[in-house]
Q: What sequence folds into this?
C-alpha cells in the first residue's frame, strides 16, 4: 500500500512499480500525464480538481473513489471497473470507456461528449445532468439505473439494452437506433419523445 505525502504523479508511479493498490489518499489540484495505470486498484481515493492527460487506466478498478471537477484528456478507461464511486463535475470528452462497468455509482454533471461507451454497463447507478452528445453507446447495458437530464443527442444507441429504464427525463434527439427501435422496448419515454421514435420508423405525425 502506498502511503506518505508524495505528489499525485509520484504516488501513481510508486503504485505502478510496487504492483500494489493506492488507498486512502486525497489529491487536490494536481496533474498527471502519460502514465500507464492499467490494471491498478484504487480504494477510497479522492481526486479534486485534478488534471489527467493521456493516461491509461485500462482495466483499473475503483472502489469507493471520488472524482470532483476533474478533467481527463485523451485518457483510456477500457474494461475498467467502478463500484460505489462518485464522479461529479468531471470532463472526459472523447474518453475510451469501452466495456467499462459501473456498479452502484453516482455520476453527476459529467461531460462525456464523443466518449466511447461501447459494451459498457451501468448497474444500480444514478446519472444526473450528464452530457453524452454524439457518444458511442452501442451495446450499452443499463440495469436498475436512474437517468435524469441526461443528454443523448445524436448518440449511437444501436443494440443498447434499455429495458426497464425511465428515459422520460432524457434528451433523445437524433439518436441512432436499429430499424425496429428494439433498444427502446420495455423502456419508458414521454409523449414528445415518441415523436422522435416515430421519425426514426418513418412515421409521419399529423399536426
A:
Amino acid at each position: 500500500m502506498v502511503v506518505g505525502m508524495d505528489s499525485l504523479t509520484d504516488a501513481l508511479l510508486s503504485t505502478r512499480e510496487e504492483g500494489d493498490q493506492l488507498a486512502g489518499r486525497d489529491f487536490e489540484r494536481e496533474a498527471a500525464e502519460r502514465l500507464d495505470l492499467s490494471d491498478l486498484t484504487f480504494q477510497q481515493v479522492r481526486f479534486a480538481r485534478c488534471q489527467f492527460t493521456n493516461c491509461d487506466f485500462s482495466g483499473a478498478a475503483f472502489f469507493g473513489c471520488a472524482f470532483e471537477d476533474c478533467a481527463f484528456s485523451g485518457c483510456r478507461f477500457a474494461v475498467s471497473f467502478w463500484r460505489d464511486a462518485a464522479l461529479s463535475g468531471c470532463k472526459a470528452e472523447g474518453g475510451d470507456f469501452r466495456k467499462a462497468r459501473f456498479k452502484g455509482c453516482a455520476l453527476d454533471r459529467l461531460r462525456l461528449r464523443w466518449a466511447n461507451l461501447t459494451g459498457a454497463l451501468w448497474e444500480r447507478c444514478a446519472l444526473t445532468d450528464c452530457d453524452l452528445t454524439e457518444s458511442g453507446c452501442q451495446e450499452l447495458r443499463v440495469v436498475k439505473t436512474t437517468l435524469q437530464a441526461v443528454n443523448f443527442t445524436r448518440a449511437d444507441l444501436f443494440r443498447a439494452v434499455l429495458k426497464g429504464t425511465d428515459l422520460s427525463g432524457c434528451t433523445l434527439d437524433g439518436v441512432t437506433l436499429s430499424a425496429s427501435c428494439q433498444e427502446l422496448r420495455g423502456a419508458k419515454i414521454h409523449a414528445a419523445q415518441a415523436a422522435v421514435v416515430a421519425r426514426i420508423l418513418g412515421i409521419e405525425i399529423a399536426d
Q: What stands out?
A: Helices lie at 8-18, 191-200.
